Amino acid sequence: MVAMFNPIYFVVAGLAAAFLLTLFHNRERLSYFIMIIALSLMMLISLAHLASFLAGTGEIVQVFTAGFAPPFSINFQMGPPEALLTAIVSLVGLLSGIYLSEQLRKTGAYAQAVYIVLVMGMNAMILTRDLFNLFVFLEIVSIATVGILFLSRSRTSVNTGFTYMVASGLISVVLLIGIVFAYMNAGSLNIDTLSESLVMAGRGGSIAVLLITLAFLLELKPFPANGWGIDLYTSAPGALSALISAGGMSATYYALAKVLPVGQWSHDSLVAAVGGITFIASQIIALKQDDSRRLLGYSSIGQIGLLLVVLGFSEALGDRRDFIAAGLLITHALSKSILFYISDMVQDDSLRGWAALRRKPVLLVLFGVAAFALIGFPPFPSFFAKWDLILLLNGGTEGYYLLSAMVLAGSLIEAVYLFRWFSYALKLPHEDLPELASPTSRLIAPVTAALVLAGASWYVSTLVSGFSQSFLIPVAFILLVAVIDRLPAWSKNVISIAGVSLYIADLYPRIAGDLMTMIFAGIFLVGAVLTLLSGFYYKGRRAGFYPMALTMFAGLAALIEAATILEFFWGWELMAIGSYFLLIRGKKSMPHGLSYLLFSIGGSYSILYGFSLAAAGAGGVIAMSSLVGISVMPALAYSLMLLGFLTKTASIGVHIWLPGAHGEAVADIHFMASAILLKAGVFGLITVLLAMGSEAGYTRWILLALGWIGVLSALLGNISAAFQESAKRLLAWSSIGQLGYIVWGLASMSHLGWLIALGYSVTHFLYKGILFLAIGGIALKIGTPYMYKMGGLIKRMPYSFFAVLIAIITLSGVPPLVGFSAKWITYNLIISEQLYYQGFVILIAGIIAFLYLFRMIYTVFLGQLKDNLRSVGEISIWFRIPMYLLLIVILVLSFLPNTLLRPIGDMLSGIFPEEAIVWTGSRGVTSLGYFDGAMIMYVIVGIFVILTILFLLLRKQTQKVKQFNIFYSGEAPSRPELSHFSYNFFAHYRKAVGALALPLVTGFWDRVTEIIHAVSDFIRRIYTGNGQTYLFHIVLYVVVVFLVQSGGYR
Amino acid sequence: MRSNDDFLSKKIVPGVEGDEIEVDPIRDYYCDAVPQVSREYKRAYPSIIDRFKNWARSESIWILAYGSGCGAIEMRPLMTPKYDAYQYGIQWRPTPRQANLLMVSGYLSLKTLRIVIRAYEQMPSPKYVMGLGSCTINGGMYYDSYNTINRLDYYLPVDVYVAGCMPRPESLLDGLELLKKLIREGKGHGADIYAEKFEWYKANQKKILKSWNMPDYSW
Amino acid sequence: MSWTLRILYALLTLFIVMNVGLLLNGVTRKIYARVNRRVGIRFYQPYIDLVKNYSLTNLVTHGVMFYLGPIFRLTSGVGLILFIPLIYGSQGFSNFSFSGDAVLILYFLFFGTLGMALGSGESGQPHSAIGVARGLAQVTAAEIPLVLSFLSVFIQYQSLSITEIVGAQQSGILQWTFFTNPLAGVTALLAFLGSMMRSPFDVVLAPQEIPIGPPTEYHGAFLGVLQTNRAIFPVAKTILYVNLFFGGAASWPALIPKAFLLYMWSVVVGTVFPRYRVDQSIRWFLKVPLALGLLSIVCIHFC
Amino acid sequence: MQQILDALKQSVMIEDVRKQRDDLVFITVSEAQAVSAITHLRDRANFTHLVILTAVDWLEEGLFQLTYLLNNPAEKKDIGVRVMIDREKAQMESIHHLWPAAATYQRELREMFGISFPGSPRLNETFILDEGWDGPPPYRRDFDTLKYSEETYFPRPGRSTNDPAEYMKSMLYPEVDND
Questions:
Q1: Containing domain of residue D161, as a range?
Q2: Across the interface, do B15 and A964 touch by the CB < 8 Å criterion?
């Protein structure tokens, strides 16, 4: 069967079609048809081979033409890598061909012929096993590229094409010299046999190998000798760039991979170094690009640099090398093609011009898929590839720690520019959207590429060890919900709630005994149900909301279910994607969503690095237990993991994303993001701290730092909250403060500390849930989050007021509600663990919380009712239902704090067997003090009720009055808004301690950004746009590399 | 002529939900209930508890610290060591909500009259009014002014007048003692009289405050 | 102890404390007047004022929260006095102190503040809100030395139970915390000034500027309730300080003079010093009291 | 000062000059030429400050006298420009375009004297009589305030008025026969 698809047909089909095309050059429809047929044929061949290899039935096919031995004939080999690569190249070739149909038909049969030859050349470069063949096909590809460029007939393209041709000619010379040397010394050019004979040939052979390697490296456009290649991307049509980037690069890369063994891997460090430099430098340069195609060009080159690193470290990566390279290559080829296709549709080449995509949401989705795939988010192949790469780099006998760190740093920069661009497209305010040329015919190519990418993702995930397929079930569910996105919101809501509930029912028996897991599962999943419940308020479609919300919850669930660190990381990244898309739904959320995503990625890379060290210590085992007792640089590993999780708890220093991101989110999303999502960070911290323990010497310092981070988060978060004008931002800052308590409690590594942390995790979920729903609901109802535009709403929204009142009493820790128990344990902890200085700041922070709490409830609900709010009704019933459910839980826990704290305490006794709280009923006793929740409640409620009754018995003539019946110095207030004290509420406080809330941290991050941008600006000056300079770069590059490398041959 | 007090005329305000809200400030911002006579006033004879209450009221007189005319200067010595009205249970409060005695210290122009009426009505009952000086009695030297009232008792129920131009602090103390006596005797019912003859007082007030731009009773 | 007896003791406690509080108020103002060379009010004037306020015949209310605000405030005062063990060794006058330790008292202090702030907020009176904003800002600053000194005491005795702390001070005047931990004692005395609403920290009330601040709109019986609380609350706070720093008391005759003297401390300072602005008072608390408080903790920690 | 007046005479007919002091002169100009005279003084002679604009009711002559008091801050000189207008047709050209603050004076004159200044901003809004005044302009001399007060403010009966000098004499020296 496979024999029918002899690889030689690539050349046959290509040449035959090209020949036919010249015959039918005046029948444009027919000729285009022939071209498509030929391209399809090529794809069919490669697919057939790929399918047989994937099915395990394939055999490696060797082909020699015309009975001659190479180099006089063509020698092809079709193995698994060739099958995969030709499949990619042919696919992109076909898609580009379809995409370019209009242009190709217009330019005529000759262009079509050149196009076919181009695709054929690329395929042949992959297939051939002969050096001279390789050279020939390389030339064919170069010339065909330039040919098409000329045929596209733009002025710049002629200029660029000329530079390109000269440059590639120059490189060909280097290659040809190398081949000549090789043939002279070894008498053969067959790659498979060449290697031994060349090594035996001594110095001449070495020079040959170096020159050949160098030539292919140059073809891959290494930094800085790549000016000639970059210009190509700006002047070629996007679809052609897609082919060059995806196809040409893959082919050349594989050619290099074939050549390297020839030199017995003597140049792998060169390749790795070139790759590393190219990767980092390209990403930095891309940061400052404003031209979308140029940016894509740099990004492509950067990706190739990363692939070169993979190639250079073949030895360290061992048999996983091919998996990593394939994962990266597939993702790169497909997602870059998608981006290039879209770039053709967008008329404005600047990054901001991509806002045009909003005219066609499907393109936005494709853009998102491509961007997330390029950065290596799950479920795309690059996620697994990057995971393996980092793990193996750090995990070998000699860990390449710096290199892996650089790879992650480069990826982070890539994420910066890609997502900045993406957020422009999503959210940048535009007076009138730029034009978009997107006929349906042009959608075929990118959509197909995306589908193939999805298929590849699924397939790759099956190849990974330590990753359970069950994690794909939620993803499938999400896809299902995404498919029915056109239905009204309520129906999707019902489906989503049903899905989550089913999941809970399925999960519960599995985690029933494990209280720690139960707590977080409860927060994540019960929280999910509650937020989705509040989602019923939405009338309309709410396009895109449900898939993303479910993605987040799937990620959170994966964290709980994870058995390996890979699964944990998968969940973590999935959650990041989902939450990012939820957070950017707000109106002004663009910059904040971006900073959220970047901090998320930074944090997750930090976690990834820590995980890789853990796995290295455990000898490559990636079970969750490998986090315990890390043997490779444990202090660094744990610190990095903690740092990564701290970005999600938004602790001070890495908190700057939170106020904006949460402050601009819609009500129920705010609830998800703050009451639920932040707990993921807490869960991560708990996981790491449990693994780390506090025995080792270094842990003392880590915990000390962590404790102070928590304490300062609490203090500065609370102070800043008091200065906010927007109620939602106020709550966001308050979350920073509250999470500070949790972090501090965890850092104490003691029974009571963890009791506080876990207790807070639960209660924070409860009262913050109420606050977010209430405040968010009000902001939604009246269309602004600013408190000075509210006021007097108690008259209009008594139910919300009551819920908020209970919530803030709980938050502030005033007895008799449940918040007090946390304060009580805090005092016990401070004294019993001697955490006097941290503890003192924590206590002060708790008192400062009164400032913002009163401000919020007063300026929103009390004071003067504004005219435009006179008729506003209660917030949606769908917000009130979850609010009151949470409220009931708070009241129950207030009466019986032991129902929450006692089981947690019992569970913690397993971890920290030291002294604990002794419970008798609702009375808790420690070695220091005691409190009785129920008794306090009885006494206070009793006094209150008695006093109220007594007061009512006084029976006065009571007159209910309205808002202006106030003493106003004998005058009448003129307008409600002038008598409502709200703006700059704590002016005096700001005057006294405002310096503490100065955005020092923000300044630090601004400076970091500035420096990176300055570096980027400096580096990119080498690209003058002058062809001669570019050629000079190449020559200089060759000379320098030759001198450096040949130093070893003397 | 057009009035400046446009903020009290009806207006249409766009609501946050796209609706239009008609705001009638007098109706929507203010309570328009009419004051009621107290139960104590209706009783024929004061009960023993009422007597005790009246004693307490008389021994704890809180004055609204508000000066309408030149007489305000004569109130200050009462707080100084020389006269020290505190020893007689007299104190000053900054808000009418917590005051029992309104001292109208001198002439009242139309503008101050309006403020005095508001302040008086905002005081909790029982409440007392003391008029100081000729101006409050018969207009004094402003008897022929076109915008100064002549007789305070046509506008507010005055309990005690203290004559003089201006009366000296000693006279004020004397007036206060008289007031205390009246309260003890159960005659301090100014607020009830005001409620009883509400229409008459309002008519008088509205006669001169022609652009009446406040609710009939400022609670 | 039966519940009936408990409630009787509680009522007795309230009766005693309220009288002490009212007399303290009267005597304080008498002293103020004498410093100003006035005769001053009669020392029983607060009683008359209280009766007068309760006997006013009408009430104006802005809403439920406004109505309940003073009651919240009084609940806080009454609750506070019932949660503090007043007389060492007397089970009856320890009232409900078995339901919580010193931490309960520290946080229950805020209950009334919050209720009052909300109640006055509903009136729509901007001056109330200004007063509350000032009060909260100042309290958070005054709380810093307070927390430090209390923490120092808790650390010193390794206990949060007031009864135990008082018990440890019973063997003589030199065993009082004020002498065994003088830094904490001084810090506490400075913090005490900030919580008593007297000059120099009384800009919250500022009668001429924001007519009397938070309670601007409260009158009649509402004001009566607030005044009742004003009698109970400062005494409760003072007794807390007496318990923690001045050896507590084993009988009422021992307790009342101590409370009186401590109360006078704030009166004397208030008589002598003029008023601070809010930002000034915050800065003041962040200087000497903060330093002293930290020093006391350091001493307890390392000595 | 004389130079200023001489220069002014070039364009304006000055009806009367009364020198009060060296630095204070009152001139009288006709109603028609008043604004141009004031403009001249402001723009040419540096009288940049309008000190006051007020009116005198010459009831017997049937005239209102408007006085524009102008000040030259640089040379510390004042000029009062007097304009006599007809009491029956009390109307004058507005000068709010020269000094925006003049509009306030003109509002006051409109309210208290009933002199109209067509074109002056917010002229017909109440100025200080915002209690709903419905009587004649109260500063006109033919307005009897006592009568108005008696009609409006409930005079207390029994009030008697004494000549202060005679009254004091009788009180201090009752033994002297005052006849």
A1: 2-172
A2: no
